[in-house]
Amino acid sequence: MRTIRGQPYSNLSMRILIVEDDPTLADGLMRSLYQSGYALDVAANGEMAHNMLKDADYDLAILDLGLPKMDGLEVLRRLRQRGGKTPVLILTARDAIESRVQGLDLGADDYLTKPFNLVELEARIRALLRRGKMGSNALLACGKLSFDAVGKRALIDGNVVELSARELGVLEVLMLRQSKVVNKEQIMGALYNWDDDIGDNAIEVYIHRLRKKIEASGAHIRTIRGLGYLLEHE
Ligand code: CA
To answer: Which pTM was predicted?
Structure first.
């Protein structure tokens, strides 16, 4: 692993991980992005990339797909599986349409086909970094519990919580109206698409399950007798 820090004149203090096993290409990317003032790390194989993405908080990863030790798609799959939100730009061979589609399905944010133009790469990087900053606003938080309103999933300390679609629906309403009482009609309204005849009892069941599943986050669903429920954290 090599780390170099971009020049201080830059107004960006963005950290990018370059995952590329071809040393000539990795070097070219390093040189070009260094000039633009980014802080850079390079991983020369998939396993290394996987570990670095796990240990550090990157603003962006440029990911080659054909890698020794662990395939690029597997690196991406593991990153998204543990709730990692780092924007990922994949580098694919011109004819590898299938892996490009697979990459986007697995949560890549953009792709470039090799050989690519460095000016174009930098334009894509800037776009992803801008989008990445805005995207983080879509995350609602309550203590250690966070809710990704775009990706429709809940996380505790960055780890995805296994929830059914209806449990997610209930949690989303509670997260959106955090620290306010949410009544059963509002919860039913949010679940309307899922089931036409949800009774009071069903809601109580979802709330009961949710309480258990989010327990470790410190967030708590309080019952306000006769009024509804309220999500809060200590
Ligand atoms: Ca390669």
So the answer is: 0.55
CA of 121 to the centre of ligand 1 (A): 17
Per-residue pLDDT of the chain (234 residues; tens, 9 = 90+): 455 544 433 434 688 999 999 999 999 999 999 888 888 999 999 999 999 999 988 989 999 999 999 999 999 999 999 989 899 999 987 667 778 788 888 888 888 888 888 888 988 888 888 776 545 445 678 888 988 766 778 999 888 999 988 898 899 889 877 888 988 888 887 675 544 566 778 889 999 999 999 999 999 999 999 899 999 987
Range of the domain at 71: 2-134
Same domain, 44 and 145: no
User: CA 201 to CA 12: how far, in whole Å?
Assistant: 53
Sequence-separated (6 or more) residues with CB below 8 Å from residue 229: 174, 181, 182, 187, 207, 221, 222, 223
Distance 179 CA to ligand 1 centre (A): 50
58 and 27 within one domain: yes
Distance between Cα 72 and ligand 1 center (Å): 9
User: Which of 134, 169, 189 is the last residue in one of the domains?
Assistant: 134
Give distance in angstroms: CA of 66 to centre of ligand 1: 4
Final residue before a domain boundary, out of 77, 111, 134: 134
CB 18 within 8 A of CB 91: no
Considering the domain architecture, whether residues 58 and 76 belong to the same structural domain is answered as yes
